[in-house]
Write a structure and sequence with these properties.
alpha+beta, twelve-stranded mixed beta sheet, globular, single chain, about 230 residues
Length: about 230
């Protein structure tokens, strides 16, 4: 259980600077996108497989976004203001422990400078995902790592994905892969609903302790050392 919890916590810390779309002036979109999460090539025992997330929900309300990932042990949420370029990551462990990591514009800009902008290449290959014809795209990082996915510019086409490996891509990713702790996670959109989310979905709820990612690691280690 400790191994599973540690893996999920690490994924959460990455999520606090996770893939999100940044909206510029122009097109806007309000709605909900449901994604399925799979783990290509992963060798997991039944306990770990049962604890890993299998879906995530992206809510968009013009310049605001919210990503929710729910597992049996915890709920992970990130609330983003793409106009201000700020984010709040929330971690709720079984309703008993609640932490929040706030990222300022300066912190996000500093994180973006690490490694520099990737080389984005849009390919001729297309694929229909959740009813949208998407173009294939690759993003090559400075270290040679290549991420691939499929995106559409029919949904919020002025987004440029400033907070993820596809930084600079103008469009919404409906299928993509990322690697965390040596494990590949594949996100595939299964449903897109053009319904306006509630404004309260993008507000920080009460009862969360604000910490840094370093403080969270320490508190998690203390929790694990004192647990079973």
């Amino acid at each position: 259980m400790r191994k599973i919890l540690s893996l999920l916590i690490c994924a959460f810390i990455v999520l606090s600077f996770s893939n999100a779309n940044a909206q510029k002036k122009g097109k806007s979109f309000s709605g909900v996108i449901n994604y399925q999460i799979t783990y290509p090539g992963a060798d997991m025992d039944p306990a770990m497989a049962g604890a890993m997330p299998t879906s995530t929900v992206l809510k968009i309300l013009e310049e605001k976004q919210r990503i929710d990932v729910v597992t049996a042990q915890m709920t992970q949420t990130i609330i983003i203001n793409t106009s201000l370029k700020t984010s709040i990551a929330l971690l709720d462990v079984m309703g008993m422990y609640k932490w929040a990591i706030k990222s300022t514009t300066l912190q996000i800009d500093s994180a973006l400078k690490v490694g520099g902008a990737p080389k984005i290449e849009v390919l001729a290959e297309t694929k229909v995902i959740a009813g949208y014809t998407c173009k294939k795209v690759t993003a090559t990082q400075d270290d040679g790592t290549v991420y691939s996915g499929y995106f559409t510019d029919e949904i919020a086409g002025d987004y440029d994905n400033w907070n993820g490996p596809f930084w600079g891509l103008k469009g919404t990713l409906l299928e993509y892969e990322v690697e965390q702790n040596g494990m590949t996670m594949k996100y595939s959109a299964t449903e897109i609903k053009k319904e306006k989310p509630k404004a309260t979905d993008f507000m920080m709820p009460e009862g969360f302790k604000v910490v840094t990612s370093e403080q969270l690691k320490v508190e998690i280690e203390q929790l694990q050392n004192g647990g079973q």
